[in-house]
Amino acid sequence: MAADAYAQLARTLERITHAAGQSARLAVVLNVGDLSRRTAIPEEVVASLLDGNKAPDTALADRVRQRLDFVRESHRRPDGKRYSLDELAGIAGVTRQTMSEWRKSGVPSLESADRLRRFFGLPAGFLTADEPEALDAALQPVVQELEAKSDPLAALRTPGFYRLAQRAPHMSRRKLHALAEWAEMITEREAEDDEEL
Hints:
Blueprint: H1 2-20, H2 26-29, H3 32-39, H4 43-50, H5 60-74, H6 85-92, H7 96-105, H8 110-119, H9 131-150, H10 159-167, H11 173-196
């Protein structure tokens, strides 16, 4: 599984490099601190993974415990205070004693882990994903944004636009010109609407 996760991360990093058009180190191009906060992976491990290195082996129990501590530190109650173990236990649907055991053993039940994950709005597998898997998931929005910027026609590559393009050879010049003017009018209006917001 880890080998597959590293291979997938390598493909994602290659896509980012290609889309960004950067020859610099990815650790310099990407926000390592932000990626660390979103994945609960230490910054030095994130930077190392971005450079193509392997993460230190972490036992599942240690990884879950580290991420539980991360959630407790980084996700605050509406009043800004840390969630107590009693509150976390209530969210997970277990007793405080069980929550304390998890902090020692790091192995919550799947149901309880999912309750915590959903309550805090964390991605699927957040507590258990290994480092390359977690980083790859956090990088997916970055890839999509960079690829959209590097290929402005990507949004037009939809079945509807393909069907329209297939009709083009059978359209008269007048109709093609009218279609182009219509597209210009729509995009100008959207730009004006965006400016009003």
